[in-house]
Fold this sequence. Notes:
By secondary structure, the chain is an alpha+beta fold. Helices cover about 60% and strands about 10% of the residues. The protein is built from 22 helices and 15 strands. Strands 1, 2, 3, 4 and 6 form a five-stranded antiparallel sheet that branches. The chain has a four-stranded mixed sheet with strand order 5-10-9-7, covered by helices on one side. It has a two-stranded antiparallel ribbon with strand order 8-11. β14 and β15 (about 520) form a beta hairpin. α1 (about 5-20) crosses α10 (about 155-175), α17 packs antiparallel against α18 (about 390-410) and α21 (about 475-510) runs antiparallel to α22. The longest helix is centred in the last third of the chain and has 39 residues, at about 520-560. The radius of gyration is 33 Å and the shape is globular.
Amino acid sequence: MILQDLNRVRQIAVIAARHGFADLTERAGLWRMLGRKEKVEVSPEMQRASTARRFRMLLNDLGPSFVKLGQILSTRGDLLPAEFVDELAMLQDQVEPIPLEQVHAQIRESLGKDVQDLFATIDPTPLAAASIAQVHRAVTKAGDEVVVKVQRPGISERIDSDLTVLRSLARLLEAVIEETGVYTPSGIVDEFDKAIHEELDFVNEASNIRAFLANHVDRPYLKIPRVYDELSSRKVLTLEFIRGVKISQAKLTEDERKQLAKNIVEGSFRQLFDDGLFHGDPHPGNILVLEDKRLALLDFGVVGRLTKPMQETLVMLCLAVALKDSDSVARILYRVGVPDARANLAGFRNDIEGILGQHLPTTLGEVDARTLLRDLLDLAVKYRIRIPKEYALLSRASVSTEGMLRSLYPEMNILEMVLPYAKELLAGRYDPSQLQGGLMRTLLRFQSLATDLPTQLSQILLDLESGKFTVTVRADQFDKLNENLRTVAIIAFLGLCACGFIVGAFLSFAQKPWMYREVPVLGILGIALAAAFAGGVFTWYLFGSRFRKVSVSRWLKKRR
């Protein structure tokens, strides 16, 4: 590490100790690496706070890069437990706006022209200032009202520097933390690295907006802003200005609230199952109500993508949850996830059955999706099953959408509103009006089996054709016995060799052949070889357990 990085590590260690993580910094060896330990007092408030809350406050005090890390982690219920995700969701960017001169300089550097040549006017007061960028209202030369999102100068270099420090800290933590969950600290840093660099590239966000605009062109109830390509780059993004009110602040009649709730459900359904592209952060601040009571979506830095197989899996998962079929839920989650090791599927299924029994007591109208989704993700983490990030992002988006719907229209009957879409999804698969729950559950399991079976049979046939198909019968006691027999055989072989050389040495001394300066050469050589083989026996006896699985198997293969 360079001196600047060491100073940053020292700062992180001090702030971490101040937030009650001194034991962790001590175990990670940060103070040994820095050369001295600083005494830090922990306030009584911090001592009373939960670990999740202290972690959130720690990231907040470490600066913009770590605040952004927390915000990204708050969308990934597959990485952290629910209590941490809930705390991190409260993180807000609290940064001073950059001066207007720096905004102009960044626009000039990114677009290659002076601000006066690109815009008729630009408002000196920002609409919003965040850790990565700030937003200004402006008017183009053609007279269009726009918003200009300008990246903070030097933010990319600062994040890269903090990532270097984070990787070093992650490796230290991995050396002292026995259980790190599904993702190691280094894995979490890697996920943050990918997510933050996608967000830093405004070309990526512009591409997302164009895709949303194309998908929603025939949906008049939803407005998507237009991108001004000639006024956009990797660090500057210019969008159509949309005049509206945040949905949480809009004054609406009961009928208007009901209609907007229906529009949100309709838009969410179309994004998931028609487009395969959905908004990853649909909180009330990113949804505006226009004068004509249409909805407008803002901020497309975080989006999710679902392939056709993922959409099919999502349909089966929703159906399995609705039918309280814990076996199908377990198998679907196990199949879409990536288990770190062979998971206990029976235990996984039993725990899911408990969750479904808790959250689905009577009807779907009473389901609390926020708690249900969170508990399912927590369970996957518990059984070390890596759920793809798209599903974790979808879980977060679903929770935000449901909370917004309940706030917008508390009297809403979720079952009544969702049922038409469920029928649409099932059309072409089953006829729900003719099937009872038991038969539907059987068909669901059959479809899950039918999805997996061709792939598994194809793999078996390929292995048979190529001669790679093997059947292995394992028994722990037989394996141990086999290992011990091999060890005895090796020791006996080495011992017999040693005895043979000892006998030969004594015969050589008695007959005195091949004398050199009155010393029998064969006798000395026999003693040396006998000592070598005896040493081999002794070494194998002491350290054989370490080498048996590798050395013996290799030796036997060579002998064959």
